[in-house]
Amino acid sequence: MNNEHGSQNKADNSAPLVSISCITFNHEHFIAQAIDSFLMQKTTFPIEILLHDDASTDNTANIIREYEAKYPEIIKPIYETENQWKKGKKGSAVFNFPRARGKYIAICEGDDYWIDSQKLSKQVMFMMQHPNLSMSFHAVRIDYADSSRGSKIHRHKGRQFFKAKEVILGGGSFYPTCSVMFRKDVIENLPTSFLTSTGQVPLVLNAVTKGDVGYIDEIMAVRNVHVPGSWTKKMTESNFDQKIDFLIKVEMMLNAFNKHTGFKFKRVIKKKISIAVRHLLIAAILNREDRKKNYEFLKKRMLLTDRFLAYIGCLINFAVLRRKLKLLRSVKKEQ
After folding, report:
1. Continuous segment of H or E residues that includes residue 106
2. Which domain holds residue 310?
3. Cβ distance 219 to 139 under 8 Å?
4. Where is the domain boundary, 191, 225, 259?
5. Greatest CA separation found in the chain?
6. What separation in angstroms does the CA of 148 have from each of 84, 208, 248, 287, 325?
7. 142-166, pLDDT tens digit by residue?
8. 329 and 252 in one domain?
9. In angstroms, what CA-CA distances link 109 with 164, 227, 279?
């Protein structure tokens, strides 16, 4: 446990300006780094750290208890005895957001962490300077916990503000969760139909109806992907039927959002669904899934342009694969 933390974030009974929301499950190798990164924040305003441990079966809860004992005024955990995710109760939206007291809410899951001690100060100042913003996010470094590839930077160079259309089309990969901060009013009157297993997407969709979205081009956090048991790892290892099930949930959530907004974003949402289907169709063809059954199911949800792009995508992938096989054969012959 790190003993050096931000000067303002000691005992402070005044209402916090920022509530940090962190959900965690079996993150014993990551959670201390996440909490330390919250506590190191140097601010001129009070914060609170809302932790929700969803009945971890490893040492995660015990690690949180150590921090809670040392910083009881700041760290406010909930320890589940039964896993709530399996019961359909989805993390922050159910357990952390309703008890948040801050004007702003910053999100960071238990396997991610922040690397800039000024992150909260910079983001709060940015949003105060632009009161029209309902949400902001920033650049992050992406690390692969399974070492399947090297780190990469997720950023949007040359941009500071984004339109609702761009955010909707971008989806969850557009704004890394560990970089998101939003005004608390974004979660007010959040339709229950939005709360599906699609991460923070429903929250962000609601944000674009309440204001603009801003971006800071500074790397202030690290997102760990392919962590054992994480959503990214499960999606990587999921079979095609599971991917179809997830697509259906996303489609239902987007249609609910469409209805909630009076069909204001009808064309954008139709395009978003079509793009998601296109990527899935390419994967189905390349992996030799049941093409006829899947194509009939998927093509109904695709715009004509995306059907064409799916076809081109398959041709390109097949061409690349043939080139790799040809190169491999030539290498073997030389040996």
Report:
1. strand 104-107
2. 238-334
3. yes
4. 225
5. 74
6. 30, 34, 29, 20, 22
7. 999 888 888 999 999 999 999 999 9
8. yes
9. 25, 12, 27
